[in-house]
Inverse folding.
């Protein structure tokens, strides 16, 4: 892809994302991802209704009148984007592929974070860790992350969620807000998911395509697994074949949802045909309601 085409795609994505963030996402993001705690800011004179517990007795004794401590939220967060760049993410039967949806969702999250003065970092992975960008602040940095997601050519084709999760566990000593963006067409990731979920605020973002849920009636179709290169012929006109496939994919979705529930992980499910900004807003609102309950 030519450099000017890449720049055009990035700018188009920024414009679309910025509107979603300014109109809907930034405030929702702020309300559901809290800072590290409360930090002392200053003292002020006691006012009727103030908690006795926050009186600063040392200042009060020195000034001969009551003073209280004022605290502010330590807002600054570190947000990590763990983005799956395996070969299966290039598939898409709608206007955008799963990789393009991943880039758009990552951009919406990153711009929401930078609008709240949070730091954002990136880990790209396939069946190995492909690229790491340390967390930083600012629009220029976010644009670099978006460019990396859109243009990076991975060495690996397979999907190993454990690779990205294990790397994060090793390098992130402080708690982060981590968005794991993948189609989750993988196995054996329960243990690293559990470990990261215990230490960090982990949000799985599942991206799927409608054709991965149910075959259309197209007759005999030759298909290829993009990660293994295996080719096979499927009779999509056979209702038994379509039924078995749909049931298998539904069972996979249900098992994944049960795992997220067991690990107490809030998650987002997206399709390549979705309005992704609204899907994130619905997720943030639902999470805010759960936190307030």
């Amino acid at each position: 892809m030519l450099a000017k085409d890449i720049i055009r795609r990035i700018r188009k994505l920024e414009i679309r994302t910025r509107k979603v963030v300014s109109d809907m996402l930034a405030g929702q993001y702020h309300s559901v991802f809290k800072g590290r705690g409360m930090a002392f800011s200053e003292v002020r004179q006691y006012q009727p209704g103030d908690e006795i517990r926050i009186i600063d007795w040392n200042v009060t004794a020195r000034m001969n009148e009551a003073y209280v401590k004022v605290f502010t939220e330590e807002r600054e967060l570190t947000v990590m984007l763990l983005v799956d760049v395996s070969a299966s993410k290039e598939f898409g039967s709608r206007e955008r592929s799963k990789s393009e949806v991943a880039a758009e969702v990552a951009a919406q999250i990153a711009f929401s974070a930078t609008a709240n003065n949070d730091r954002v970092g990136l880990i790209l992975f396939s069946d190995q860790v492909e690229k790491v960008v340390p967390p930083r602040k600012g629009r220029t940095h976010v644009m670099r992350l978006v460019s990396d997601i859109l243009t990076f050519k991975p060495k690996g084709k397979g999907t190993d969620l454990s690779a990205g999760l294990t790397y994060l566990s090793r390098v992130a000593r402080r708690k982060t807000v981590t968005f794991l963006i993948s189609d989750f067409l993988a196995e054996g990731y329960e243990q690293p998911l559990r470990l990261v979920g215990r230490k960090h605020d982990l949000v799985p973002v599942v991206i799927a395509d409608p054709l991965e849920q149910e075959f259309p009636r197209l007759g005999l179709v030759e298909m290829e697994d993009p990660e293994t290169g295996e080719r096979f012929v499927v009779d999509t006109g056979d209702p038994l074949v379509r039924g078995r496939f749909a049931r298998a994919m539904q069972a996979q979705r249900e098992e994944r949802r049960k795992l997220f529930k067991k690990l107490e992980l809030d998650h987002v499910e997206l399709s390549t045909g979705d309005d992704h900004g609204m899907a994130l807003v619905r997720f943030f609102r639902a999470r805010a309601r759960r936190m307030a309950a």
Q: What stands out?
A: The first helix runs from residue 3 to 32. The helical segments are 3-32, 57-63, 98-115, 139-151, 161-171, 190-199, 239-262, 276-292. The chain is about 45% helix and 20% strand.
